[in-house]
Amino acid sequence: MGVLDMFRLDGRVALVSGAGRGIGAASALALAEAGADIAVLARTADQLDEVAARARALGVQAIALPADADDADAVAAAVEQVADELGRIDVVISVVGGAMPNSFMNTTDDDLRNAFEHNVVNALRLVRHAVPHLIAAGGGSVVMVSSAMGHNVGRGYAAYGASKAALEHAVRLVAADLNPTIRVNAVAPGAILTEALQIVADNPEIRSAIEAATPLRRLGLPDDIAAAVLYLASDASSYVTGQIIAVDGGVRTPNFELPIPDVG
Question: Among 1, 5, 48, 199, which is 20 to 30 Å from 99 by CA?
């Protein structure tokens, strides 16, 4: 087998959550391009239908399963439907979460609970339901999508950053639990030009500050993350587990500031 062949996913089934747009959609299509049949999950049915149609145009099977990541029963049912309709699950990509930046003193208990619910609980719930199917398929790969703010420091990210840091350590802990049958890794994006970042990208001052603070001097694209997801999902990374791969343009500590007021 040549090195490029190691990135192929022919005959495998990938389940991608948060796949209606942005990083999730790009990741699902990258896996489809590599030959995987895919199941895409998210809340918005029309977005999922479009992603699934684009995957089918690449010659693979694709099913769209509208489901809210907050709904534990819906997620469990969706996982079972994937296994029933596509016959197996070999790869799980979890692209869920988020939290709005805010100053620490304006971050409420509910903000913290919601951040951990969306970024940690929902992500791990999906994996837990999928594990029996991954084992039945003979093993597989789990890829979480974290964030550069899970290990970098910046003002305004107390809830989001802390929850993503928890997710990154959960990746290491779950990998230890599931070795050697299932590999568990994460991609940690930096500033990626998705709809969620568009409001920032449309502000020339903030965009210039982010680009200037990024060693590669540009915002990332969803395909930058999708390429890393494909690597971790495929046999190309068969000797990699419990790792967090930063795809962030080289940022280590942001030196730009969000418009968060000082305390005192």
Answer: 48
Residue pLDDT, tens place only, 151-173: 888 888 899 999 999 999 999 99
The active-site residue, picked from 157, 160, 231, 239, is 160
Is residue 111 a part of any domain in this protein?
yes
DSSP state of 104: G
Structure tokens at 16: 């991608």
C-alpha 166/C-alpha 135 separation (Å) is: 25
pTM of the model: 0.93
3-state secondary structure (DSSP) of residue 166: helix
For the chain, what's the residue count? 264
Tally the domains of the chain: 1
Output the domain CATH number for residue 25: 3.40.50.720
For residue 160, indicate whether it is catalytic.
yes
Query: Which residues are registered as beta bridge partners of 246?
Result: 188
Q: Provide the domain limits for residue 217.
A: 4-247
On whether residue 257 sits in a domain, the answer given is no
